[in-house]
Protein backbone atom coordinates (compact mmCIF):
# COMPACT_ATOMS: atom_id res chain seq x y z
CA UNK A 1 0.00 0.00 0.00
CA UNK A 2 1.22 3.48 -0.82
CA UNK A 3 1.43 5.82 2.18
CA UNK A 4 1.83 9.49 1.27
CA UNK A 5 3.79 11.09 4.12
CA UNK A 6 2.76 14.65 4.99
CA UNK A 7 4.71 15.82 8.04
CA UNK A 8 4.25 16.53 10.78
CA UNK A 9 1.14 14.37 11.28
CA UNK A 10 -0.26 12.45 8.30
CA UNK A 11 0.77 9.07 6.88
CA UNK A 12 -1.67 8.10 4.15
CA UNK A 13 -5.10 7.91 5.79
CA UNK A 14 -3.63 7.71 9.32
CA UNK A 15 -2.75 10.67 11.54
CA UNK A 16 -0.64 10.97 14.65
CA UNK A 17 -2.98 11.71 17.55
CA UNK A 18 -5.60 9.14 16.49
CA UNK A 19 -6.88 6.49 18.89
CA UNK A 20 -6.38 2.76 18.30
CA UNK A 21 -10.05 2.33 17.32
CA UNK A 22 -9.82 5.14 14.75
CA UNK A 23 -6.70 3.65 13.16
CA UNK A 24 -8.18 0.13 13.15
CA UNK A 25 -11.36 1.38 11.51
CA UNK A 26 -9.44 3.24 8.79
CA UNK A 27 -6.96 0.49 7.96
CA UNK A 28 -9.50 -2.31 8.33
CA UNK A 29 -6.81 -4.94 7.94
CA UNK A 30 -5.87 -7.81 10.22
CA UNK A 31 -3.64 -6.65 13.04
CA UNK A 32 -2.09 -7.85 16.27
CA UNK A 33 -1.92 -5.78 19.44
CA UNK A 34 0.63 -5.66 22.20
CA UNK A 35 -0.51 -4.21 25.52
CA UNK A 36 1.69 -2.45 28.02
CA UNK A 37 1.09 -5.31 30.47
CA UNK A 38 2.73 -7.77 28.06
CA UNK A 39 5.73 -5.44 27.75
CA UNK A 40 6.23 -4.74 31.46
CA UNK A 41 8.37 -6.84 33.77
CA UNK A 42 7.69 -4.71 36.83
CA UNK A 43 5.51 -1.79 37.81
CA UNK A 44 7.15 1.34 39.10
CA UNK A 45 4.15 3.53 39.85
CA UNK A 46 0.35 3.63 40.03
CA UNK A 47 0.00 5.59 36.78
CA UNK A 48 1.81 2.85 34.85
CA UNK A 49 -0.23 0.17 36.63
CA UNK A 50 -3.50 1.85 35.60
CA UNK A 51 -2.43 2.01 31.93
CA UNK A 52 -1.13 -1.54 31.53
CA UNK A 53 -4.09 -2.90 29.59
CA UNK A 54 -4.10 -0.11 27.03
CA UNK A 55 -2.42 -0.98 23.74
CA UNK A 56 1.23 -0.13 23.27
CA UNK A 57 1.17 -0.84 19.54
CA UNK A 58 -0.87 -2.33 16.72
CA UNK A 59 0.99 -4.25 14.02
CA UNK A 60 -0.63 -4.31 10.58
CA UNK A 61 1.88 -6.76 9.10
CA UNK A 62 0.19 -7.20 5.71
CA UNK A 63 0.39 -3.42 5.21
CA UNK A 64 3.90 -2.94 6.62
CA UNK A 65 2.70 -0.54 9.32
CA UNK A 66 3.04 -0.38 13.11
CA UNK A 67 1.11 2.24 15.09
CA UNK A 68 2.67 3.11 18.48
CA UNK A 69 0.51 4.57 21.25
CA UNK A 70 1.52 6.68 24.23
CA UNK A 71 0.18 6.38 27.79
CA UNK A 72 -2.88 8.42 26.77
CA UNK A 73 -3.68 5.82 24.09
CA UNK A 74 -3.11 8.11 21.14
CA UNK A 75 -0.81 7.35 18.25
CA UNK A 76 2.54 9.09 18.65
CA UNK A 77 4.59 7.23 16.04
CA UNK A 78 4.08 5.17 12.89
CA UNK A 79 6.66 2.74 11.52
CA UNK A 80 6.52 1.78 7.83
CA UNK A 81 8.42 -1.13 6.28
CA UNK A 82 7.97 -3.34 3.22
CA UNK A 83 5.45 -4.05 1.75
CA UNK A 84 4.47 -0.42 2.53
CA UNK A 85 5.57 2.21 0.04
CA UNK A 86 6.22 5.40 2.04
CA UNK A 87 6.20 8.32 -0.40
CA UNK A 88 7.55 11.71 0.68
CA UNK A 89 7.67 14.58 -1.82
CA UNK A 90 7.22 12.05 -4.66
CA UNK A 91 10.08 9.79 -3.56
CA UNK A 92 9.72 6.22 -2.23
CA UNK A 93 11.88 6.35 0.89
CA UNK A 94 12.36 2.56 0.97
CA UNK A 95 13.51 2.27 -2.64
CA UNK A 96 16.80 0.46 -3.17
CA UNK A 97 17.86 3.43 -5.30
CA UNK A 98 18.04 5.62 -2.19
CA UNK A 99 20.97 5.25 0.19
CA UNK A 100 20.82 7.03 3.55
CA UNK A 101 23.49 9.41 2.24
CA UNK A 102 21.48 10.35 -0.87
CA UNK A 103 18.36 10.80 1.29
CA UNK A 104 20.33 12.94 3.76
CA UNK A 105 21.51 15.24 0.96
CA UNK A 106 18.02 15.39 -0.56
CA UNK A 107 16.27 16.12 2.76
CA UNK A 108 18.83 18.79 3.65
CA UNK A 109 18.02 20.65 0.40
CA UNK A 110 14.52 21.06 1.88
CA UNK A 111 15.79 22.27 5.28
CA UNK A 112 15.66 18.77 6.76
CA UNK A 113 18.61 19.37 9.12
CA UNK A 114 19.38 15.64 9.33
CA UNK A 115 21.38 14.04 12.11
CA UNK A 116 22.73 10.52 12.57
CA UNK A 117 21.35 8.96 15.77
CA UNK A 118 21.95 5.30 16.66
CA UNK A 119 22.15 3.78 13.17
CA UNK A 120 19.40 6.04 11.82
CA UNK A 121 19.04 9.28 9.92
CA UNK A 122 16.72 11.64 11.83
CA UNK A 123 15.20 14.90 10.69
CA UNK A 124 13.38 16.76 13.44
CA UNK A 125 12.01 19.34 11.00
CA UNK A 126 10.05 16.64 9.16
CA UNK A 127 9.78 14.31 12.19
CA UNK A 128 11.15 11.38 10.22
CA UNK A 129 13.57 8.61 11.20
CA UNK A 130 15.06 6.51 8.42
CA UNK A 131 16.80 3.42 9.67
CA UNK A 132 17.01 -0.33 9.92
CA UNK A 133 14.67 -2.88 11.49
CA UNK A 134 17.58 -5.11 12.41
CA UNK A 135 20.86 -4.27 14.05
CA UNK A 136 23.79 -4.01 11.70
CA UNK A 137 27.08 -5.77 12.28
CA UNK A 138 30.17 -3.79 13.23
CA UNK A 139 31.50 -4.10 9.67
CA UNK A 140 28.26 -2.69 8.23
CA UNK A 141 28.19 0.20 10.67
CA UNK A 142 31.15 1.87 8.92
CA UNK A 143 29.23 1.97 5.64
CA UNK A 144 25.74 2.58 7.03
CA UNK A 145 25.19 5.64 4.84
CA UNK A 146 25.53 3.51 1.69
CA UNK A 147 22.52 1.33 2.55
CA UNK A 148 18.88 2.12 1.82
CA UNK A 149 16.71 2.27 4.94
CA UNK A 150 14.49 -0.71 5.74
CA UNK A 151 12.04 1.29 7.86
CA UNK A 152 10.68 4.79 8.20
CA UNK A 153 9.29 6.16 11.47
CA UNK A 154 7.09 9.24 11.52
CA UNK A 155 6.97 10.59 15.07
CA UNK A 156 5.28 13.20 17.22
CA UNK A 157 7.20 15.66 19.33
CA UNK A 158 8.50 13.91 22.42
CA UNK A 159 8.70 10.42 20.89
CA UNK A 160 12.05 8.78 21.66
CA UNK A 161 14.05 11.98 21.21
CA UNK A 162 14.65 14.89 23.57
CA UNK A 163 13.88 18.24 21.98
Report on the structure:
The protein is α+β, with helices and mostly antiparallel strands and 163 residues long. The chain has a domain at 2-96 and 124-132 and 151-155. The chain is 18% helix and 33% strand.
Radius of gyration: 16 Å
N-to-C CA distance: 32 Å
Structural class: alpha+beta
Please provide the ordered H/E string of secondary-structure elements.
EEEHEHHEEEEEHEEEHE
Can you tell me the residue ranges where pLDDT is under 50 for at least 5 consecutive residues?
A: 38-49
What kind of assembly state do the chains in view correspond to? single chain
Sum this structure up briefly.
The protein is of the alpha+beta class and 163 residues long.
Structure keywords:
163 residues; alpha+beta; eight-stranded antiparallel sheet; 18% helix; 33% strand
Amino acid sequence: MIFDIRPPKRVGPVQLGMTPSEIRQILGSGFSTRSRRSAMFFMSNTQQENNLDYPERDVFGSLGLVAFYNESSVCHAIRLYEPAEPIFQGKNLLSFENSLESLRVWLNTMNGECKIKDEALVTYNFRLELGFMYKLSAEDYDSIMNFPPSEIVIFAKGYRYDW
